[in-house]
Design a protein that fits this description.
The complex is a heterodimer of chains A (about 150) and B (about 260). Chain A is α/β, with parallel strands linked by helices. Chain A is built from two helices and eight strands, in the order H-E-E-E-E-E-E-E-E-H. Chain A folds into two domains: about 30 residues; about 100 residues, no CATH class. Chain A is elongated, with a radius of gyration of 23 Å. Chain B is mostly helical and about 260 residues long. Chain B contains nine helices and no strands. In chain B, helix 3 packs antiparallel against helix 4. Classes of the chains: A alpha/beta (about 150), B mainly alpha (about 260). Chains A and B meet through helix 1 of A and helix 2, helix 6, helix 7 and helix 8 of B.
């Protein structure tokens, strides 16, 4: 086997390897959606966040507009503080918008759903959404259902 | 009774001293590495025999593993009405575990055994001592390019394995069971993280690559220079290489994904 052919096939091999890696990074992983760092952050307080995690989606009307950046617990008010990264082009949320923790499908992943309000002023970086609705915990719902059934009798 | 104890002690000491020899051997190779970069043609030749010649088996295995994964995932998920999540199952298992591990196992069988046999034969035909006579360091001339090439080839092979696996899963999911094409990619993108999943898989493959070529080259260099000894050394390379890949994979998984 002459050297030229060996070198050509090795070059091809390395190029194909990098192409494969590139294809995986671009097509299959979330690398493309990473650049949301230029967005702005807003926070919201919830009594109960259920199964929400960091990097869970933030959506309006089912359309993804950002992700959960940070989840903290406030020791003073006994509430969970959820900080969200919103992509920069979605900067027209009225300050009385509300946030709720919803579930995609019956058993699906939990996400933050935003509901735009009616005020003239818009949320800015570091703003806080005051109207929130906690996650629905299935056990509590079933518990309430059982109690109400028991009361009927 | 004491004889038994002595036997255990002997075995233990033999294992430890062999590990020590192997470590010193690797250290010697690493010391000669800078000289290898002066002659990259040696590395290219080894990349050809360890990397390019392993490519075909990696392509075939990757496609079929991806296809089987997709079929199995469909079989289970369809009961829950979640068959659209096939891609997440296929992509995540390929990136986190199957990609590095199966590529490592195939690499140990295909390239590792060839390395051991080659170096073992060089030793038994006294080519290595011949080089020393001519004041050529066999560590630098023979071992170091092979270790470097294997070290570089395995991550590339792993990336290719993952990519064809994902495409094989795509074939079955989209054209076989009829998942909508966009859903396949977008659900994978929603779940797979570039750093935690893809990069950790690649890190695994780098570790596996180093360990496999290290074992292969050491076994070849350490083999008994007879036809029987050569056969045993080749077997040991494949067995120890595969076991090392599987054991290390557990350790690395526990370290990388343990808290998730």
């Amino acid at each position: 086997m002459n050297t030229r052919l060996v070198e050509i096939t090795v070059g091809l091999f390395v190029v194909v390897g990098f192409a494969a890696f590139f294809m995986l990074a671009m097509n299959v992983s979330n690398l493309i959606t990473y650049e949301s760092n230029e967005g702005y952050q807003v926070s919201a307080r919830f009594d109960n966040i259920g199964g929400l995690k960091e990097r869970s989606p933030v959506a309006v009307g089912g359309v993804r507009i950002g992700k959960v950046a940070k989840i903290e617990y406030d020791n003073e008010s006994y509430e969970a503080v959820v900080t969200m990264d919103i992509e920069p082009q979605y900067n027209r949320f009225p300050i009385d918008s509300s946030a709720g923790i919803l579930t995609a499908g019956l058993l699906g992943e939990q996400y933050v759903g935003l509901e735009p309000g009616a005020e003239e002023e818009f949320l800015v970086a570091g703003g806080e959404i005051t109207v929130t609705q906690s996650a629905i915990v299935l056990e509590e719902v079933i518990g309430q259902f059982l109690y109400s059934k028991a009361d009927e009798k | 009774m004491l004889d038994k104890l002595q036997l255990i002690g002997q075995k233990q000491l033999a294992i430890v001293s062999r590990l020590g020899q192997a470590t010193i051997f690797l250290y010697q190779i690493i010391l000669t590495m800078p000289g290898v970069f002066v002659r990259p043609s040696l590395i290219i030749k080894q990349l050809y025999s360890t990397g390019v010649q392993t490519l075909v088996i990696i392509l075939v295995a990757g496609t079929f593993v991806g296809m089987v994964l997709a079929l199995q995932a469909y079989y289970v998920l369809v009961d829950f009405g979640a068959e659209e999540s096939i891609s997440q199952m296929v992509v995540l298992s390929l990136m986190r575990e199957l990609g590095p591990v199966i590529t490592g196992l195939l690499f140990a069988g295909r390239a590792g055994s060839a390395l051991t046999a080659e170096i073992g034969l060089m030793k038994s035909t006294e080519q290595l001592s011949g080089m020393e006579m001519m004041a050529i360091d066999p560590m630098q001339r023979v071992m170091a390019p092979r270790v470097l090439a294997g070290f570089m080839a395995l991550p590339i092979l792993t990336a290719i394995f993952m990519a064809v696996g994902v495409l094989g899963g795509y074939l079955v999911a989209v054209h076989g069971v009829g998942i909508y094409e966009g859903v396949y990619w977008s659900l994978a993108q929603a779940k797979v993280d570039f750093y935690t999943d893809l990069m950790n898989g690649m890190i695994k493959s780098v570790v596996f690559g180093l360990v496999i070529v290290w074992i292969a080259v050491f076994e070849g260099h350490d083999s008994v220079p007879t036809s029987e000894g050569l056969g045993q050394a080749t077997t040991r390379t494949v067995v120890h290489g595969s076991l090392a890949v599987l054991g290390l994979d557990f350790l690395l998984t526990a370290l990388m994904f343990g808290d998730i």
